[in-house]
Amino acid sequence: MKKGSKQTTSRRNKQTVASTTCKKLSIQPSEQKIKTCQRDFVQLFPLEVSLKVFSELDIQSLCNAAVTCKSWNQTIENCDDLWKHHCLTVRAVCQREIDDDRGNGYSWKVTLLRNYWKSKVKYEWLSGKYSNIHSRVALPEKSMYPMDVDTWGEILEAELER
């Protein structure tokens, strides 16, 4: 009997979550659409289809999707290849860092997390964004990021060539 009441509570909670989610998306669904909305496409479609959908997302959207619900999180967390494309994009700026992390056995996701902000800051430094700044006070707040000696060496070389 307790098991049955748990299932009823679970269904009721799912309906509330689905309805709330649809309202947040500014959708005014009919009762039929609410029932459809509460179904999770990750659970409905083959894994390959879900992975194809997730692979089309940008980094921010993929991170947001990973915290949407348990099934999405499990799917995204269990497929490291979803992060590979984004990591290879960051590699254009941080090739040595990405190659070192991958060589040390880090997953694509962890490698991306370790190097994403570093690549943004490094790109700005290498592109000369901070070349004409004469004091640290003039640097924007997010212009610094913990980087290793080799990375700062690359930045210094770029500055000396300017």
TrEMBL record:
Domain F-box: 39-86
SUPFAM superfamilies per the UniProt record, alphabetical: F-box domain (SSF81383)
Alphabetical list of InterPro entries matching this protein: F-box-like_dom_sf, F-box_dom, FBXW2
Any single Pfam family the record assigns to this protein: F-box-like
Keyword annotations of the record: Repeat, WD repeat
Name of this protein: F-box protein 48
Organism: Podarcis muralis
Gene that specifies this protein: FBXO48
